[in-house]
Amino acid sequence: VKVTMDEGEMASIDILESHESADIGDPALETMKQRMLEANSASVDGVSGATISCQALCEAVTQALESARM
Predict the structure, then answer these.
(1) Tens place of pLDDT per residue across the chain (70 aa)
(2) From residue 27, how far is each of 8, 45, 47 by CA, in Å?
(3) Which of these, 58, 26, 60, 56, lies nearest to 45 by C-alpha position?
(4) CB–CB of 33/47 below 8 Å?
(5) Rg of the chain's alpha carbons, rounded to an integer?
(6) In the 8-state DSSP scheme, what is residue 2?
(7) Total-model pTM
(8) What pLDDT is stored for residue 70 in this prediction?
(9) What distance in Å separates the CA atoms of residue 27 and residue 19, rounded to the nearest whole number?
(10) What is the largest CA-CA distance in the chain?
């Protein structure tokens, strides 16, 4: 993932690579991205039915944020 910051807040989250299903995984990840941007945090509730995908996105965004702080 690529997280773009603007004045200390997440401005955008881009998923650079995904192997998710178009019918369940992709919409769940879009929902997760929106939740994270609204909360300015990777710690948000997941989407039912896509728990593993949501956890993976949360971890990837957390790692990107940690890298940005270094």
Answers:
(1) 999 999 989 999 999 988 888 888 899 999 999 999 999 999 999 999 999 999 999 999 999 999 987 5
(2) 27, 15, 9
(3) 58
(4) no
(5) 11
(6) E
(7) 0.89
(8) 59
(9) 13
(10) 37
